Amino acid sequence: MNALKQRSALLGRSLLILTLLVVQGCGPSAGNTVPRLPGDGVDNLGKGQGADETLAKSEPDPWQDKELISAPAAKAPSAVPLPSIERFTLKNGVQVIAVQDASLPIVSMQVAIKTGEREDPREQTGLASFVSSTMPRGTKLRSAQKIAAETDAIGAAIQSNTSYETTLFSCKSLAKDRATCLRLLPDVLINPSFPESEIEIVRRNMQAEVRQRLDDAGQLASAHFQAALWGEGHIRGSVMSSSTIDAISRTDLVNWHKRWVRPNNAILAISGDFDSAKLRAELDKSFSQWKSATLPEPSVQTPPKLAGLKIRLIDKPGQTQSHIRIGHFGLAHRWPEFYPTLVFNHALGGGQFSSRLMKVVRSAEGKAYTASSNFDRNMEVGAFVAGTFTRSSETMATVKLMQKVIASMATDGPTPAEVSAAITNIAGSYATRFETADDVASALLAAELHGFDSTYVSDFPLQLATVGRDAAAAAARKILDPVNAVLVIVGDAKLVEPQLKANGLGYERISYTAPVSDWERAAKAKALDKVDDPELQAAARKLLKEALEVKGGAKRLGKLKSFHWVGDAALNMPTGPLAGEVEKRFSAADKLRLDLQLAGGQVKIATALSGKGGWSQQQDPSGNHVREFTPEELAALGSQLWRDADLVLLRQLEPGIVIRPLGERNTAGTSAQAINMARADGSMAVTLLIDPQSKLLLGLDYADQGMNTSERFGDYKNVQGYQIAHTRSTKSSEVDLKTTLKSFVADEAIAETVYLLPKQADK
Questions:
Q1: What own/partner pairs with CB < 8 Å and gap ≥ 24 does 2-9 have?
Q2: What is the rounded CA–CA span in Å between residue 515 and residue 526?
Q3: What structural domains does the chain harbor?
Q4: For residue 350, what are the CA distances in angstroms to 201, 331, 345, 366, 531?
Q5: In angstroms, how far is CA 78 from the centroid of its own chain?
Q6: Are 239 and 222 in contact (CB under 8 A)?
Q7: Rounded to a whole number, what is the distance in angstroms from the first to the last CA of the chain?
Q8: Interatomic CA distance for residues 195 and 205, integer angstroms
Q9: How, if at all, do strands 485-491 and 309-315 pair?
Q10: SS3 (DSSP) at 693
Q11: Sign of the CA dihedral 438, 442, 443, 444?
């Protein structure tokens, strides 16, 4: 396995589109290793199915209600037999749960830190995940490549993950190789070095998660539901964004690790084939350098109060289906209603095709492909959410059906038959989860984190079996609240909004590209609106006008027919700069092409806009790949053309442009005036940095598709009457590119064929 792998990736975030090779670290893998509590099996926010599922109404089933084969009688729930379990505490305070099982020659170690995302600062949401993702990528004793080499040599892996409550690290290997895990896992926990190069790889990966959310309406709906439910006063109401990731520094990672990753804040679960007589001494030796410390006081998180139906419409133009989330606060794990809630929720929406939501929304009415409901299982009160997706035209009809089903369960509870089926199904599936000692250890660890002992794990089916219809109905009446709830809809507002208005419902409308968190949207709005002094407004407009004149003048620049420039490029990567060449061509008013060559011409990438169409082409040793852009991609690329560095000053002349002076900013040691320029509908926006002395444009800052990007310009030269920046840089979480122009020509004839879709050898 190579230490670094290179892949080609398309980045439509700067100029027209910057395409580059992204280095992806091939170090320790990160998987979803946080143990689930017994009974868990679904994500707490129920993402639902993909947006392209068919929503056709099911055809009548001729075999429905006809018994072909009689099912055997269900067995009564019984306790789960557990192997011998040993518990002890290491000299440094680590609690240990040991499950010995010699049936397989495997040893698994899991260390749970009893702190997670709940301790993220609001402005740095994602910090705990950033820490856990970076820790296995290098220590004071081993580089990421060294860790990868040692684990690869024995077929093992060190994994990490963070949930709201817990941060977990694990290592699994053959029993004969457990010494490697006993060396590496403590090293990762005690000595992480947080290398800058690895930090930037993790940052890029996290930024990719944020951008992926924009393309996944289900993820977007779940994120907005969380933000709307918990509000800006609770950390769960703050959703990781490009800005919160950018706000995290290496110092923040080091400090979080120092505060929370301590042995007196940890539980170690070890399972498999080991010598129990020698185990304690081995663990004490391996973790001896991990020192206890006084832990900070946990932050206090208070859920807000819900009053009435709070509706949030997320406008995603072109979305043909609406993704729906409706819910409210649920219960805490230790509440006496925990087991009854499992039962009634199975009947409501947790039981897949046997649940009421699925039967009514899908089978009876044909509104959706799937529908479900889920409860968080946290130490604190968590969330209840029901989710589905449906055709845009059926949005409110589907919402009403869901509300009706939830209200019916709240009023009447489940039927005796539903209770019996729920207990049989949950208890039966629960027993199948304990196939290995690792499964047992994970369940014991998860229970321990919530203050339960091993009887919780073994007696889970028995406790479930004690739930009667009356208890399930009482829990439904107490917890379900059809009146005070949050409703989130992600869809095309022009199709959904009339339905909300027709039903007389008030709602908040938010663009799908806007920050998810309430506090972050408010902060951005405040930053833009904080300067409304008429004199400052007038000064900002005057400076913009002067900058346009210095650039070449509105008349001259407005009549620009074309430009063509070529420059040397340096793409900064973790391994050092990669040299290349960039060529850019523009023909008024909507044709643009960017060519990038890398690796001595071995990789050639071209992207182009041509009127209402566009395409990309990549030529490399693997072949010649051409594809046309989708309408969504073309819309995003249109934003890049609007913000083009050599044309952007013309945008102040558009009717209805909103100008907001933002005060002084320092860029490359020069004081510049920051001026935000945006269309009134918010569809286009950019902050320009202008030198008040020379009136030259020094930079652009903007957010696009969930990613913050900065462009900087210098070494201006007069070319054919235009002031042209000959040094240009573009920096974001994905790209750090510097370009030095070798030539710039304006108003030359550029052949139309340059912008036409090229022939392709393969797709």
A1: 2/26, 3/27, 3/144, 3/145, 3/148, 4/574, 4/575, 8/603, 8/605, 8/618, 8/620, 9/734
A2: 14
A3: 309-514 (3.30.830.10), 530-755 (2.50.20.10)
A4: 38, 16, 6, 19, 51
A5: 40
A6: no
A7: 28
A8: 16
A9: parallel
A10: coil
A11: positive
Residue 463, phi then psi, degrees to nearest 5: -65, -40
In this predicted model, what pLDDT tens digit does every residue of 36-55 receive, in sequence order?
Answer: 655 444 344 333 333 333 34
Alpha carbon 179 to its chain centroid, in Å, reads 35
Q: How far apart (Å, rounded) are the C-alpha atoms in residues 226 and 238? A: 8
Task: Evaluate whether 139 touches 192 at the Cβ level (below 8 Å).
Answer: yes
Of residues 734, 741, 726, the one with CA closest to residue 572: 734
Q: What angle do CA 431, 434, 436 make, to 5 degrees?
A: 160
Peptide bond into 589 cis (omega under 30): yes
3-class SS at 275? coil
Q: Compute how many other C-beta atoms are within 10 angstroms of the C-beta atom of residue 630.
A: 11
Q: Which of 571, 527, 752, 547 is nearest to 651 (CA)?
A: 547
Structure tokens at 723: 């002031």
The two three-digit tokens of residue 579, written as one number: 């040299």
SS3 category, 98: strand
d(CA 398, CA 389): 9
Is there a contact between 233 and 304 (Cβ–Cβ < 8 Å)? yes
Segment holding 637, helix H or strand E:
helix 631-642
- Asked if residues 239 and 125 have their Cβ atoms less than 8 Å apart, the reply is yes
3-state secondary structure of 619: strand
Global pTM value: 0.81
Provide the token pair at 536: 């400052």
User: Within 13 A of 570's CA, how many CA atoms are on the CB side?
Assistant: 11
For 473-512, the pLDDT digits (tens) are 999 999 999 899 999 999 999 999 999 999 999 999 999 9
**Encoded tokens for 531:** 């300067």
pLDDT tens-digit profile of 641-698? 899 999 999 999 999 999 999 889 888 788 999 999 998 877 789 999 999 999 999 9
Single-letter amino acid, residue 173: S
Mapped to the 3 state alphabet, what secondary structure does 25-39 carry? ECCCCCCCCCCCCCC
Tell me how long the chain is.
763
Whether 345 and 383 have beta carbons less than 8 Å apart is answered as: no
| Sequence letter at residue 519 | W
Helix/strand/coil for 562: strand
Which stretches of 79-165 are DSSP H helices? 127-134, 144-154
Q: Kindly list the distances between the CA atom of residue 7 and the CA atoms of 20, 27, 567, 573, in Å, as whole numbers in the listed order.
A: 8, 16, 23, 12
Sequential DSSP letters for 563-603: EEEEEEEEEEETTEEEEEEEEEEEETTTEEEEEEEEGGGTE
